[in-house]
Fold this sequence. Notes:
- The chain is of the alpha/beta class.
- The chain folds into 4 domains: 2-99, Trypsin Inhibitor V, Chain A (2-Layer Sandwich); 106-168, Trypsin Inhibitor V, Chain A, CATH 3.30.10; 173-235, Trypsin Inhibitor V, Chain A (2-Layer Sandwich); 242-308, Trypsin Inhibitor V, Chain A, CATH 3.30.10.20.
- It has helices spanning 2-26, 35-38, 49-55, 117-124, 184-193, 253-262, and strands spanning 59-67, 77-80, 92-99, 106-108, 128-136, 146-149, 156-158, 161-168, 173-175, 197-203, 213-217, 223-225, 229-235, 242-244, 266-272, 281-284, 291-293, 297-303.
- The strands form 7 sheets. Strands 1-3-2 form a 3-stranded mixed beta sheet, covered by helices on one side.
- The chain starts with a helix and ends in a 6-residue tail after the last strand.
- The relative contact order is 0.08.
Amino acid sequence: xxxxxxxxxxxxxxxxxxxxxxxxxxxxxxxxxxxxxxxxxxxxxxxxxxxxxxxxxxxxxxxxxxxxxxxxxxxxxxxxxxxxxxxxxxxxxxxxxxxxxxxxxxxxxxxxxxxxxxxxxxxxxxxxxxxxxxxxxxxxxxxxxxxxxxxxxxxxxxxxxxxxxxxxxxxxxxxxxxxxxxxxxxxxxxxxxxxxxxxxxxxxxxxxxxxxxxxxxxxxxxxxxxxxxxxxxxxxxxxxxxxxxxxxxxxxxxxxxxxxxxxxxxxxxxxxxxxxxxxxxxxxxxxxxxxxxxxxxxxxxxxxxxxxx
Length: 309
């Protein structure tokens, strides 16, 4: 009914336009009655843009917006910026609003950021079509976690909407380089530039100069996450045939173990119950002052601190 009335109005308006044109023709050829001054703005409601442009070639139509409408089918013009019946010049720009059709049942978009992609698909695939459009490195997100979505949370959407997302590729990985025989300080700087942490341990190595890298743990060529700690074994040189054991009782176990290794001893540590402060060396298997061969095993016993609990 609504559409028929609109078409009747269009017919009346078209007849009016035609009458004006005829009247203008019969009144002579005065310049003031030029075609531009005789044009009248038509009613575009109910037409699609293609139809309107074909029927009214003397105006320029531009889509400005779209909106839901119960009265107009999808694609039809709902509103226009220039009112029907207004006198216009040829080429008049008219901005129009296009119907999106009847408003259907709408849902509010979820916030999927931080959710596992497979879980999101499993739970919401009946209403949303997920499309992966890229990956990003994210140290704070596990692999395949959604880190970006094209439609903002809270936006209304219709069932079956396509949602473009980006996933985390996990932490950025890097490959351990070959640092063998490299100067310790230069090797530490190189690993630091790669975003890696370094822990240095000393060992006797007759075939590697002092303060140079023997090996790393993980080894050369292994892939590790950025921020990982790399253990770098550094040579203290060939050393002497025998070493004099120092007294490491009372020291922190970490420092004591490093010193013992520096002297060329093969260090093993054991934790025992004691009232001493946790981590303090309370006994060593080789007494201070004894001469032993390089590579000799020494056991450093340190306190569990259980007596202080």
